[in-house]
Amino acid sequence: MPEFIVSPLYNDPDADVVLRSCDNVDFRLDKCILRRQSTFFRDMFTLPSQGNEPQIVPVSESATTLEDLLPFLYPGGRPEILELSRLRAVLQAADKYDLAFLDDTLKTNLALFLPSEPLRVYATAYIMEDASLAQAAAKCLLERPQF
């Protein structure tokens, strides 16, 4: 497997925190940005750090999921996630890290998959407790002759 290349935006040599993915890829980030976006990180970073080295925070997300999630947190835009499985992983991470401000954006992206993958959208919407999106997915399923 080729080595994962971290975007220069998430590889800051002056970073004060390192998010280490479950596949051992380091994302060197700024606590102040994470703290502003997430109460999860705000609470985590109230604890004092040890020494001058960046705080290392192991996370259960893959490098790909972090690479997909971080553009939503850092200035510079809102990317479109093209694969449903990747979007689902970002939705789960956003929920885990209390990034409620992303709900509408991510669910709008999820709705783009209604025509092509209504069953997977339904399952994801159900898990995310989004009744209106689950209902829209159910309607798409019922309109398909094979169901």
Automatic annotation (TrEMBL):
PANTHER family: BTB DOMAIN-CONTAINING PROTEIN (PTHR47274:SF4), BTB/POZ DOMAIN CONTAINING PROTEIN, EXPRESSED-RELATED (PTHR47274). May act as a substrate-specific adapter of an E3 ubiquitin-protein ligase complex (CUL3-RBX1-BTB) which mediates the ubiquitination and subsequent proteasomal degradation of target proteins. Pfam families: BTB. Signal peptide: none annotated. SMART domains: BTB (SM00225). It comes from the Eukaryota. Residues 15-76 form the BTB domain. The lineage of its organism: Eukaryota, Fungi, Dikarya, Basidiomycota, Agaricomycotina. This is BTB domain-containing protein. InterPro entries: At1g01640-like, BTB/POZ_dom, SKP1/BTB/POZ_sf. It comes from Trametes pubescens.
